[in-house]
Amino acid sequence: MANIATNISASPLRDTWKRFTAALVRGIEAQHNVTARRNRIDALEAKSDEELAKMGLRREDIVYHVFKDLFYA
Fold it and tell me: pTM of the entire structure?
């Protein structure tokens, strides 16, 4: 009969790998957020001034509108 231990102690290599993968995931998420905001800006800039006015926006306020959740003003 064989016994298998599943409580393997932490190793420096495993901790390094965990930190690396966590940093990689954070980087991918950050890139996704930047890309999504950039796409939103591009979509709004492609609209005409009349369409923006219907939305209550001015062309010079597009970037503020997209990033306003990051500012406290």
Answer: 0.66
Cβ contacts of 52 within 8 Å, gap of 6 or more:
44, 58, 59, 62
Write out 22-67 in H/E/C secondary structure: HHHHHHHHHHHHHHHHHHHHHHHHCCCHHHHHHHCCCHHHHHHHHH
Under a CB-based contact definition with an 8 Å cutoff, are residues 48 and 62 in contact? no
For residue 8, the Cα-to-chain-centroid distance in whole angstroms is 34
> Tell me, what's the pLDDT at 25?
97
Whole-Å CA distances, 19 to 3, 14, 23, 30: 31, 9, 6, 16
CB 52 within 8 A of CB 59: yes
Average pLDDT over residues 26-32: 96
